[in-house]
Write a structure and sequence with these properties.
Blueprint: E1 2-5, E2 18-21, E3 31-41, H1 43-51, E4 66-73, E5 85-88, E6 101-105, E7 109-111, H2 118-121, H3 125-136, E8 148-152, H4 157-169, E9 173-177, H5 181-189, E10 194-196, H6 202-208, E11 214-219, H7 223-233, E12 234-242, H8 252-255, E13 260-263, H9 268-272, H10 277-292, E14 299-304, H11 308-320, E15 326-330
Parallel strand pairs: 8-9, 8-11, 9-10, 11-12, 12-13, 14-15
Antiparallel strand pairs: 1-2, 3-4, 3-6, 3-15, 4-5, 5-7
Helix pairs in contact: 3-4, 3-10
Length: about 325
């Protein structure tokens, strides 16, 4: 089958993803074999491309957010049939969805309801699951005592899904950060009650708006450099959920406020083999909410064809830092 792959880590200006012929996936008993119809593009995939190369003689096929059609069902995969339209996330330890077909554990997959397109379905999994787990953990809502939430990076995929989940499932005040007119407008349109500029004095902007405390900060980008002002706006015993903590990060400013820190990566359940089916259930709920109008699919750019040129364009958009919502490639 055809797939997009690369061998060595590389920057955007030396883009080295190629269209290759590769062996068909070999599904496990718990897998579905899915014909891929659309893939969402994520900043995390661009970061992996820049920093992680394949083992000698190997290649890497990324793509952790997809929509497609079930071609076969493993002996221990339940709840699905050939021909079902599905969306899901895949698994970082296996080949991803930048290919004609994908083998994926059925527990991180959900059916696509009638009325939801492949492109819109492919915009939901990573942002939706990341936002859900960062905000709600194992609950169907916020923990008690959290009613003011600040989302850093409100115009991206995770931030956009977080704002919508908060407005559709809680009564919390939602503050998002954005620095450009287009991203500020997007944040307001997708649920933020207030938008502040993260390139300015965030604590002062909150005070000017009459907000004297934040209970939970969901930080989707720049967390290491923002710890100082995050500590200033969080109440004592508040909460920080971060999706981009890596390397050495000084959390010292948070200690005096006894802040709890929750790191989030969407692949933790499947990597650890813990409550994996929870994610399939969350995905099913997200898809149902999208069809019912409670959530707005976040596709803003659709590129046609899983090719080198469309993937390069998608990565240029992701790395520009100036997009809103989600870029999806229709296969």
């Amino acid at each position: 089958m055809k797939a997009l792959a690369y061998r060595t880590a590389h920057p955007l200006d030396a883009f080295a993803i190629e269209l290759i012929d590769t062996a068909e996936p070999r599904p496990r008993d718990t897998d579905l074999l899915v014909s891929v119809r659309a893939v969402g593009i994520n900043p995390g995939e661009a970061a992996i491309r820049r920093t992680r190369g394949a083992a000698p003689g190997g290649r890497i096929i990324l793509g952790f957010e997809f929509a497609g059609v079930v071609e076969s069902v493993g002996a221990r995969a339940t709840g699905f049939a050939v021909g079902d339209r599905v969306l899901g996330t895949g698994d970082m330890s296996r080949d991803g969805a930048w290919a004609e077909r994908l083998a994926v554990d059925h527990r991180v997959v959900a059916r696509i309801p009638d009325g939801l397109s492949f492109t819109d379905a492919a915009s939901l999994p990573i942002g939706g699951l990341t936002a859900w787990e960062a905000l709600f953990r194992d609950r169907d809502g916020l923990a008690p005592g959290i009613d003011r939430v600040l989302i850093v990076g409100g115009a991206g995929g995770v931030g956009t899904m977080a704002a919508q989940l908060l407005k559709s499932r809680t009564t919390a005040l939602v503050v998002s950060t954005a620095s450009r007119p287009a991203s500020r407008e997007w944040c307001t349109a997708t649920g933020a009650d207030l938008v502040v500029d993260h390139t300015g004095d965030v604590p002062a902007q909150l005070r000017d708006a009459g907000i004297d405390r934040i209970d939970l900060v969901l930080s989707t980008s720049g967390t290491a450099g923002n710890v100082g002002w995050i500590a200033e706006v969080l109440r004592p015993f508040g909460h920080l959920a971060a999706v981009d903590l890596h390397g050495s990060v000084d959390l010292g400013p948070l200690i005096g406020r006894s802040v709890s820190v929750h790191t989030e990566t969407v692949f933790s359940r499947i990597t650890a083999g813990v409550d994996v089916a929870v994610q399939g259930g969350i995905l099913a709920g997200l898809a149902a909410d999208a069809v019912a109008g409670r959530l707005r699919p976040i596709t803003t750019t659709v590129l046609d064809g899983l090719r080198v040129d469309t993937m390069r364009t998608a990565h240029e958009l992701v790395e520009s830092g100036r997009t809103v919502g989600k870029t999806v490639i229709r296969c």
